[in-house]
Design brief:
alpha+beta; 16 helices; eight-stranded mixed sheet; 420 residues; five-stranded mixed sheet
Length: 420
């Protein structure tokens, strides 16, 4: 037995469970691909400063949770804790915003890393699918992304998720609210870390999950009372578009999200069957992020949905996805000549789009048929010397037990026909 184990707070994806994760990634990405989003893939690590500026120096992600390293050349790098800053950096570096076709629509899928206390639904290595629309300020774009996420969840059969919605205002109206909130918070009994946060980004205090803090926040000034007319109108348009599309949502005036770059629209998807770690995904508009990381003004919006959390949500609702069989046909040769012939048939089947496997290792008939059953295959192809002499193989339906002799050169066509 190996003495090595996966690092604490991480997990391995292995069959058959890994097939569910692949299906979830496919389901989440399908709606955005249909909406014109192109795939982007960024490095697993970036310059530390990208996240310090973009995600925010007051966030727990930057202050406590990033995995950082110093290269031999002295560069300060961090394993990516989230996807938006990396994707925007890649788009700016490639000058995609100069193509003349805004917004730039991108989607991605990958692993992200945060040093947190491991618990169910919260890992140090986790998987997300995300989508970003860069370079346009339009309520329809915010609504589009939210609708695409809702459609993805519904395509998986999920029902018990809720959409929380809020507006965080913009650079015109947020400063006055920020000052009012700071005045309120400075009068509370808070620890030193939280007091420092008041001066850097007081909105993050509203996101503090500790009961002792939440009790003191009763009566705190609400952003909705400080929104400028432009932000109010923008938010109402988003709400109207969602309502017209049949998307139910709950207004949540305390919804902030854990990143500093959000402006105006912010949203979160929660699932009531997941306990404390109820968020399964979320996002919002981040109109100032490009400028924060050295780019031009590019109003943008996006989301990231957790693959791990979505799988847990499926389990909570007792949903089993219909997954394609890993193996449709299992070939069982009896003798050296049959091995040569059936190996060729298996290769033809695969090239024709039929999932096929082979009894490797010279197994006898009994053990080979057990392997065929374990593989989940619907059919077995069995051939011995007598079959080959007659130019046929035996096609056995492993469900019904029915067995038919099929000419060797007709096997591929016969199985394609049975697949429909």
């Amino acid at each position: 037995m190996s003495t090595f184990k996966a690092p604490k707070g991480t997990y391995d994806l292995i069959p058959p469970d890994s097939a569910v994760y692949l299906a979830v990634r496919e389901a989440i990405s399908a709606p955005v691909r249909r909406a014109g989003y192109g795939y982007v893939e960024t490095p697993g690590f970036e310059n530390v400063e990208l996240f310090a500026r973009g995600v925010g120096e007051s966030t727990d992600i930057v202050t406590k949770e990033m995995y950082t390293l110093t290269t031999r050349g002295g560069d300060e790098l961090a394993l990516r804790p989230e996807g938006t800053a990396s994707v925007l950096r890649a788009a700016l570096e490639a000058n995609l915003h100069k193509s003349g076709n805004l917004p730039v629509k991108l989607w991605y899928s990958g692993s992200y890393y945060r040093y947190e206390r491991p618990q169910k639904g919260r890992y140090r290595h986790f998987s997300q699918v995300g989508a970003e629309a860069i370079g346009a300020e339009d309520p329809a774009l915010d609504a589009e992304l939210i609708i695409l996420a809702v459609d993805a969840y519904k395509s998986l059969g999920l029902k018990n998720f809720r959409l929380l919605l809020n507006s965080l205002g913009d650079k015109e109206c947020r400063p006055a609210y920020r000052a009012a909130l700071q005045d309120f918070l400075r009068g509370l009994d808070l620890d030193e870390d939280t007091r420092r946060r008041i001066e850097i980004n007081p909105l993050r205090v509203l996101d503090d999950k500790r009961e002792a803090v939440q009790k003191q926040l009763v009566g705190a000034p609400m952003l909705r009372d400080h929104l400028c007319e432009a932000c109010k109108e923008y938010h109402e348009q988003v709400r109207a578009l969602l309502t017209a599309a049949g998307v139910a949502f709950e207004d949540d005036e305390k919804l902030v999200r854990g990143l500093d770059y959000y402006t105006r629209t912010t949203f979160e998807f929660v699932h009531d069957g997941l306990g404390a770690q109820s968020a399964v995904g979320g996002g919002g508009r981040y109109d100032g992020l490009s400028e924060m990381i050295g780019g031009p003004a590019l109003p943008s919006v996006g989301w990231a949905l957790g693959v791990d959390r979505t799988v847990l949500a499926l389990e909570a609702e007792g949903i089993e996805l219909e997954l394609p069989a890993a193996t449709e046909v299992y070939a069982v040769p009896l003798g050296d000549e049959a091995r040569r012939v059936l190996f060729g048939v298996v290769t033809e089947l695969r090239r024709a789009g039929v999932a096929a496997d082979f009894a490797f290792g010279g197994k006898g008939l009994k053990n080979a048929m057990k392997s065929a059953d374990r593989s989940g295959a619907r059919y077995a192809l069995v051939a011995g010397e007598r079959d080959l002499a007659e130019g046929v193989v035996q096609l056995k339906d492993l469900g019904s037990g029915e067995q038919t002799a099929v000419p060797i050169d007709a096997v591929v066509g016969e199985l394609q026909a049975r697949q429909g």
